[in-house]
Design brief:
CATH architecture of the largest domain: Beta Barrel
Helix content: 10-25%
Order of helices and strands: EHEEEHEEEEEEEEEEEEH
Number of strands: 16
Low-confidence stretches: 1-16
Distance between the termini: 27 Å
Strand content: 35-45%
């Protein structure tokens, strides 16, 4: 078992869209709900890096420590060590929350790597539902076709995650570069579970970031002029994937 190490308190920048929870009893209640509901957790080793999946598997109320399950890719585990700060993202009742955790201990239990850290001193409760994002499982191969509105660029790419305001795709490095940022694309043939027909519309390329897969860039899009029907359809699909993730964790 690894040794405990005193580390500085990790902090997370706030925005106008967040409500900060600082009462210890409320923080403990949020963490307990995450554990009881087997909420799928997103973990970033770097604030702008790829998102890895995990679960909150245990809470120790006496020591005020939480235990995260091993990340979904082995190469990510090799990057983590005691003293590292990780960024935690999750969703409760369709509203996104986030906090940071300093890893105080790493050990193996029943064949699983566990990461141990102190309860956060504050949790950011994001009040905009559009920030609620759900990653698609690795075995789920859903795609969308995109066509740039002012060029001949057209591509069909795999969906990585989605929210009610946008989606993210994985493309080969160099397929889309930074000069396309803030430009508009038409998207169509987005076929998702629990939808009667594929979705189509307009979207703006808002960010490019590394993917968990070597050679792949994650491209994030924000849907333009989204209507309530499209938002409801995306929320149904997002909740479907969240339910499936919970079933797998049972």
């Amino acid at each position: 078992m690894g040794t405990l190490k005193q580390t500085p308190v990790a902090t997370e920048p706030e925005t106008n869209d967040t409500h900060t929870v600082i009462k210890p009893e409320r923080i403990a209640s949020i963490l307990n709900e995450m554990r009881q509901q087997l909420v799928l957790i997103g973990v970033r080793i770097d604030a702008k890096g790829p998102l890895y999946n995990s679960l909150l598997v245990r809470l120790d109320e006496a020591t005020q420590q939480l235990y995260l399950d091993e990340l979904n890719l082995l190469d990510a585990q090799e990057l983590l060590s005691v003293g590292d700060v990780v960024h935690i993202y999750a969703s409760l009742r369709g509203i996104a929350i986030r906090f940071v955790m300093t890893i105080d201990n790493i050990f193996i239990e029943d064949g699983h790597m566990l990461y141990v850290g102190a309860y956060p001193t504050h949790i950011s409760y994001l009040q905009r539902r559009d920030i609620f994002r759900v990653p698609l499982p690795l075995h789920e191969r859903r795609s969308v076709t995109l066509q740039h509105e002012r060029s001949e660029l057209e591509l069909t790419a795999r969906l990585i995650d989605l929210s009610i305001k946008g989606f993210c795709i994985g493309v080969l490095n160099g397929t889309i570069n930074s000069r396309w940022l803030q430009t508009h694309f038409r998207y169509f043939n987005m076929d998702l579970p629990e939808l009667r027909a594929p979705l189509s519309g307009q979207a703006t390329l808002v960010n490019l970031r590394p993917s968990i897969h070597p050679g792949i860039t994650a491209a994030g899009f924000s849907i333009i002029h989204s209507d309530p029907q499209t938002e409801r359809a995306l929320m149904r699909a997002a909740l479907y994937y969240q339910r499936e993730a919970r079933k797998k964790a049972d």
